[in-house]
Amino acid sequence: MSIVKTDVPISSESCRQMIQMLTEAYPFCRSETLTQTAFGRPVQTLVIGNGPRKVLYTAAHHANEWITALVLLKFAEDLAQAIVDGTTVGGVDARAISEGTTIYMVPLVNPDGVDLVTGAIAAGSFQYETARALSEFYPQIPFPDGWKANLMGVDLNLQYPAGWLQAREIKFSQGYTRPGPRDYVGRAPLSQLESRALAGYTEVIDPALVLAYHTQGEVIYWQFGPEVPGARELGERFAAVSGYELSDTPYESGFAGYKDWFIQNFRRPGYTIEVGRGENPLPISQFDEIYKDNLGILTIAALPDA
Prior knowledge:
This protein has 306 residues and is an alpha/beta fold. Helix content is 39%, strand content 15%. The chain has 10 helices and 12 strands.
C-alpha cells in the first residue's frame, strides 16, 4: 500500500505524516525540520541516498502550486522502494543512484499558504480571516484559490537577493505594493522564515544542482545572468524526457527567485520547472500525467554523472 496519497490535496499535516511514515518504512530515508513558520508549521526535509553528489529538489514555494509537493514525495517513495527491491526508477538502477548521489528534498516550502488553499485552515479561523483581510486589497484575485504567498502575505519566490530590487520595481509597478495573495516581495530579501531557512540549507548542502518545482505551463526555466557551463545541455535533456519546453525566463518574472539566487551565488545549474497546464491550483486529476512527465527529470538530475 502506498504511503504517499496522490488522489487528495496535500496539507502540512499530511505531508508531515507521509515524511514520518517514509522514514519509518525506509531507514535510509531521513528528515529534519528547517524552521517553523510564523504560524508554527514545520518546513521539513526528506533525504535519500549517501552518495558524494548532492542535489536539492524543492516544491510548493507557492501555496496554490501544492501539487508539486506530491511529485517529490511520490518520487521519494518510488525510489526508496526500488532501492529495497533492487529495481529501477525512471529506467535507472535505484541503488546506483543512492550510492552515487544524496538527494535532498524540501517538498513543502510554504506549508502555511498550502493549508490555506487546500482547506486545512478553517474558514472563519484567525489565520483564515487574517489572509482574507490581506486579500481584500486585491479583489481581482480569487480567494483562497489565487493565494500564492505565505500567510504573512509575502511571495516566497520573490525573496532572494538576486535582482531583488528589480523584482520590487517590477511588482510595485504592477500594483503589488503591500502584503497580499501574490507577488509582494517583502520588505527585504530573506525577510521570511521559510526563504531564509531554505537559503541557509542550500548553503550548508552546497549542491551540484537545484530543481524548484512550480505550476503551470509545461516549461523549464534555466538561466539567470551569465550562462552556467553545462546548464543548457542538461536542460535540453530534461526537456527531451518530459516534453516540456526549455525557455528563458520572462523579464517580468526573471528576478529574486530561488533558482536565480542559486545560479548567481553557486554558478551551477538551477531550474524552475513549471508542471501541468490550466489554472492554479491544478486539479489532482492531473497528478498522474505530471508525475509521468517529470520522473525522467527527477531521475536524470540525480545521476551521479549528470
